[in-house]
């Protein structure tokens, strides 16, 4: 079962994503900011990372940058959840490979379609790790 | 897949509580209903749990909520189990306590039951929250469906793409196997299947929606939900699998069913609920809105925009495959006689029955369009010119035989038809349509009720040839941005008024750099509906010029006037576009004036005045152009919020020699004075005219005697001093 790490500071968003993705057949873990997400990634790399941008302590941009620095050979895709209006602020993302944008409100059906596209349903992804 | 509400629970705080309540040495663990460990103290002997008897859950079921824990025999120490349940004894988990060694449990172990009870409530609440979250994510899908389905379209091609997307979205977001949109009379059939599972009977189901489902819905004018297709009276001897179906009508303006939007799912999926029905009805309304842009309201036929789009497609087909198509331009003879002598509704009835006749008589693959008032067109797909001309004559005969009942009488009419080919060597779709129109004009000139075929070189048709060339020139100029802004000064006759006042004009730059005068391309642009594009170009270029050089210009420039054509005003999306353009403009809005011709404003008085009021809220001014040339009733001036009246040049030119012209100008001036409007006289070609206008009391003058049109940049930056001198 593919494992997805969902990072969002809003408990409601975390819960909705966790429940909906679990229903769609994924194993889901959650974190409420970039720091705890990074710790979780160090412990066991997820198959997919889905993160919000605006978060306390370490935001989504910093998390992506930290992941890129710490795991330069990362294979798992990162999905960044953003609002429709935030198109202008996407420049930073150009340096992060294998990064995709998701628009709010996230449609789980669209998301699962894109997950299947980028990681497959049963494909084993080479995990980062130690 | 089970959802695990315990993800959200902080077990360490329960551990802390138990640590304070139980004697030291006890270790804690929690397992879920299936026996999997959810949380445990690091020293907890998990091995002890494996020796627990299999029927423990049966034993635990007897324990009341909050009751004493059940002691379980263990080799290495004392093990106690407390069931974690909700009020209905739904078993969520087991809370375990372990103490090494032998001996009886102390009284304090009762606390274990109490903590388990609270943990149960916590889990139950979290399970409820998860259910709500699950429900919410379903609602998100619906929100996304409505949100991501566009219903604002500007032209036929966009509308077609939008309808396809709408059906696609129904399929994706509602997670159904098949979505079908049928609008029969417009020849629309869009059927889309789910991306990740195929529907074995898709073809059969699509036909069913097209036929029986549409029929049933059209009779009742109401949505239809079928829980099990195989048991429904919609189908007799259904051979396929069983399905659930939800279909909603697509209404026209008269609330009559013209089509159907349906979704189909396998019987194994949940039945369609009312919320699904509501959602599909919203989508059906969106579909209707899209249809509106591309179809004529009166007849339901494809409109001019649609005709252009489809003609273009046919031309591509002709070029790619060497096919010949034929276009018929049909003009109803003397329709205005019916309109004038009986009433407009009678004329409409004639148009409607002709539309129905053409639709019935032509093939499904042919396209019948209403171009405007009394003009229609038929695109005959893959039909050589010869056949097309024969068919045109049959249609002409059929139209002459049509009898339209109207109240206690019957109406008859005839039509003139022009025939032209769309073939590989056709220059453009526009050219083919224009050729058919020219041929139709020829048929009319030869005396109505006849068919005329277009021949290149036909001398009657050559006179408009230059116009068609002009169309090509305009289109290529639009593509290459080969236009330039010119401006002509407008001077106050009262010499106290100060700053510069300009009217912005457009000039086309020819391929070899020469300036093409407006008379050589504006009439063609009007005829072929290119004015909205030209007007937008002018506004965009002017606004960016003003914004860019605001500091340099704003001290000199008092007012700058821009022309808006009637075609542009008629575009529904233009108001919004202009408001957005004004939003970006960094120049005082009060110095922008839009000129609208009297005829354009009066043609659609209500819309024009609504448009003007909206734009006036942005601070802009309005002038009524060519005033006096058209219908010239002062009555409607009340309802138009204008600031200036521009007196038609044809009258102004004559003020010196023609006393009637002079008194007309004076009359306009009087009305303007009463209504507190200022007047501008155009075509002021001599000082004598200027003098006469001064006597009448006209406020501003414009014309060769004041200043000729020059490039806008020269007006704004080059010769500011010069233009000031002119206005003295």
General description of the model:
Chain A has helices spanning 11-23, 34-43, 60-70, 108-119; strands at 3-7, 27-31, 48-51, 78-82, 99-103. With 130 residues, chain A is of the alpha/beta class. Chain A has a single domain (3-119), classed as Rossmann fold, CATH 3.40.50. In chain A, strands 2-1-3-4-5 form a 5-stranded parallel β-sheet, with helices on both faces. The longest helix of chain A is centred in the N-terminal third of the chain and has 13 residues, at 11-23. The two termini of chain A are 21 Å apart. Chain B is an alpha+beta fold. Chain B has 4 domains: 11-140, Beta-Lactamase (2-Layer Sandwich); 150-294, Beta-Lactamase; 304-463, Reverse transcriptase/Diguanylate cyclase domain (Alpha-Beta Plaits), CATH 3.30.70.270; 471-717, EAL domain (TIM Barrel). Mean pLDDT of chain B is 84; it is low at 720-728. The longest helix of chain B is centred in the first third of the chain and has 38 residues, at 110-147. Chain B has an 8-stranded mixed beta barrel, surrounded by 6 helices. In chain B, strands 2-1-5-4-3 form a 5-stranded antiparallel β-sheet. Chain B contains 26 helices and 27 strands. The A-B interface holds A 12, 15-16, 18-20, 22-23, 25, 30, 105-110, 113, 116 and B 1, 3-4, 7-8, 129-130, 133-134, 136-137, 140-141, 143-144, 147, 172-173, 175, 195-196.
